[in-house]
């Protein structure tokens, strides 16, 4: 049996009758850049995140970079984030002119540890970038004192569109509490485009206007530039694809949760495997189902030999990347992030998986540890 880590062909077959007419409509209109579908998608994603404004852009990376550029970081300005995340989280801080300052993660959720964030704040700190890793929200309510100290929160929700967390008895969605929140529409995401794409959401009208300018070379009017921006527009074709997929998102995420629960029950009691911990305040969307395992690399090779796709997100923490060596971090600086990098393995969890495929993955893991 073959069980890929992700099967976008299966997804396409299920939605072909709705997505192809949407693409055809854009082709007929010939409005390929900033067409009507882009504005409609901005409204829909902002509504989903309970934010006042949506600003589409060319990628999830740009969705992080542009709000950081809006902060006008200067040399020496620090932005606190996690070392256990995709490279863009820290790469955009650097490219916006700031210095990434890493703090360690919680060992259960893999998310930024708020207590360590508070201890890392200095007079040079300008912002905090928490990451909702694998589709589970970070404990934002424990970071909310930061804005009161003049430190905006830029949520990296690239993997968490639709995730929510109970705060003070109310459900709060990814994108609802931060100053600006970044979403990614990379094809592998729960809501994925047919290419790159991103979205920023905010309830700050002033920064929303600024972000709209920054994505269009720094001007609200063609050929008039208030500042130096960049070209970061979402193609109309991508917006049309995303709008066609959007009605399926909640069902797809629910299906991922079902698969995750099935894995967790079936792998319970298998000592070498630690299944994902879901914070009791969170509704996880399981962009990834990520376990901690003993002999990770050998298990991954075994599963590959059985036709089972897996991935390691992420094998090298950012503080140990060569490009950040100038920051002076050494091995052992963030033991939880380093331990996670050595132990994590993501299993197939996409919505179209069959029960037989899930059972095949489970039996292959159990067989390896017998």
Q: What order do the helices and strands come in, and which of them pair?
A:
Layout: H1 8-29, H2 36-48, E1 53-57, H3 60-70, E2 78-81, H4 88-95, E3 99-102, H5 114-120, E4 125-129, H6 145-148, E5 154-156, E6 164-167, E7 170-173, E8 180-184, E9 198-202, H7 205-214, H8 236-245, H9 249-267, E10 273-274, E11 282-283, E12 289-293, H10 296-305, H11 335-343, E13 344-347, H12 355-369
Parallel strand pairs: 2-3, 2-4, 5-8
Antiparallel strand pairs: 1-9, 6-7, 6-11, 8-9, 10-12, 12-13
Describe this structure in words.
With 370 residues, the chain is α/β, with parallel strands linked by helices. The protein has helices spanning 8-29, 36-48, 60-70, 88-95, 114-120, 145-148, 205-214, 236-245, 249-267, 296-305, 335-343, 355-369; strands spanning 53-57, 78-81, 99-102, 125-129, 154-156, 164-167, 170-173, 180-184, 198-202, 273-274, 282-283, 289-293, 344-347. The protein has a four-stranded mixed beta sheet with strand order 1-9-8-5, with helices on both faces. Helix 1 (8-29) crosses helix 8, helix 2 (36-48) packs across helix 8 and helix 3 packs parallel to helix 4. The longest helix has 22 residues, at 8-29. The protein is globular and about 65 Å long. The two termini are 21 Å apart.
Number of helices: 12
Beta-strand percentage?
Answer: 5-15%
What is the straight-line distance between the termini? 21 Å
Structural class of the secondary elements? alpha/beta
Could you say which overall geometry the principal axes of the C-alpha atoms support?
globular
According to DSSP, the number of beta strands is 13
**What helical percentage do the residues reach?**
25-40%
Oligomeric category: single chain
Average pLDDT score: 97
